[in-house]
Design brief:
The chain is mainly β and about 350 residues long. It is about 5% helix and about 35% strand.
């Protein structure tokens, strides 16, 4: 028992050392750079209960064929906000009458630079290389409206990009299309499940290739084009530690300038991050909070924000008014004409309003 406790303590201290020692490399997990997986709309009633992808009353289409053996493909568009190296793709489908043990055995995937069948060209992938990695039950069943049947368990199927004929998939920011087909060991399907959109009349963008022709996929009753759930995972970037609070190097009545921190960007209050350490156009005699963070790079994510530095701009100088004008005189007093916003002084005395 004592040896076990000592071993646990040693492992705990070792892990803490990895977290706390500066410069220790920490491998970041892959992150979703595109995710439209919204196929499950009825949550589990209790912990351990299933959830459901339930059709609306006016819908009747369970899923859409993506059988590799029949050369059927499903395709959906996706957008990347910045360059990403895709590591894996998660797809969602079922085979009718399977249990919760996955029956999927193959994934075939292609990336297009435009809409398939309308001039889009294949940038990556092919229809012959199986890049299947794994499959698991999502806990969700595809059902008709009002049904709680368990004969269509939805699986998450993971495609491993490194298994492709080109093991690297790096895409610039832009709009693309992803087409895929699946293999499974059962007779029915595979069938790709649609997303549950805002309303049954919300139009999706998914397509299907059948008998060599590309067409939209739609619900049989509503006739509305469907959407297919996609999740693309890319290299996760390791984090950077937050820098110390920035130091003010110059102040005026309308600007604050910070000392430069290599690789940093700066923010005033809740504004946008900028690379220029100078903030202009500020209000005189006003306190602002300023922050710094290390900017994201091709290898690292942006750091958290630093602690705030509070800085108060200076008061603005005003031009001197004209010499005051005497409005009244007595043997013991002098009265001046009022100047808006002014205060007055006699000889070297104190200022008064």
């Amino acid at each position: 028992m004592k040896r076990n406790i000592a071993l646990v303590l040693f492992c705990s201290i070792f892990l803490l050392t990895l977290v706390l020692v500066p410069g220790t490399s920490v491998q970041a997990a892959d992150v979703a750079v595109y995710d439209t997986a919204a196929y499950c709309n009825v949550p589990a009633a209790n912990p351990g209960d299933p959830s459901y992808s339930e059709m609306a009353e006016k819908q009747d289409t369970y899923g859409f064929g993506c059988q590799h053996k029949d050369e059927r493909l499903l395709a959906e568009t996706f957008i990347l906000d910045e360059e990403a190296t895709i590591k894996s793709v998660e797809l969602f489908a079922y085979q009718t009458d399977s249990d919760t043990t996955p029956t999927f055995t193959g994934v075939y995937l292609m990336i297009y630079d435009g809409k398939p069948g309308e001039g889009g060209k294949i940038l990556w992938g092919d229809e012959v290389t199986n890049i299947f990695d794994s499959a698991e039950f999502t806990g969700c069943y595809r059902v008709l409206h009002g049904s709680r049947a368990h004969d269509r368990p939805i699986m998450k199927i993971v495609a491993d990009i490194s298994k492709g004929s080109n093991p690297v998939l790096t895409l610039a920011a832009g709009t693309y299309w992803l087409a895929f087909s699946l293999d499974g060991s059962l007779d029915s399907g595979p069938w790709g499940v649609p997303n549950i959109l805002d309303t049954i009349y919300t139009v999706g963008t998914a397509m299907q290739r059948h008998n060599g022709n590309w067409n939209i996929i739609k619900d049989n009753v509503t006739g509305v084009q469907a959407s297919i759930p996609l999740r693309l995972l890319a290299d996760g970037k390791p984090p950077q530690a937050a820098p110390a609070a920035p130091v003010v190097s110059a102040l005026t009545d309308t600007s604050v300038t910070l000392e430069t921190i290599p690789g940093a960007e700066y923010r005033l209050n809740d504004g946008a991050w900028q690379t220029d350490p100078e903030f202009t156009g500020l209000t005189p005699n006003t306190t602002y909070n300023l922050y710094a963070r290390l900017a994201g790079t091709s290898t690292h994510a942006a750091s958290p924000a630093s602690p705030a530095t509070a800085a108060t701009t200076l008061k603005s100088t005003q031009a001197a008014p004209a010499a005051p004008v005497v409005s009244a005189l007595t043997d013991t007093s002098v009265t001046l004409e009022t100047i808006p916003g002014a205060e007055y002084r006699l000889n070297d005395g104190a200022w008064q309003t």
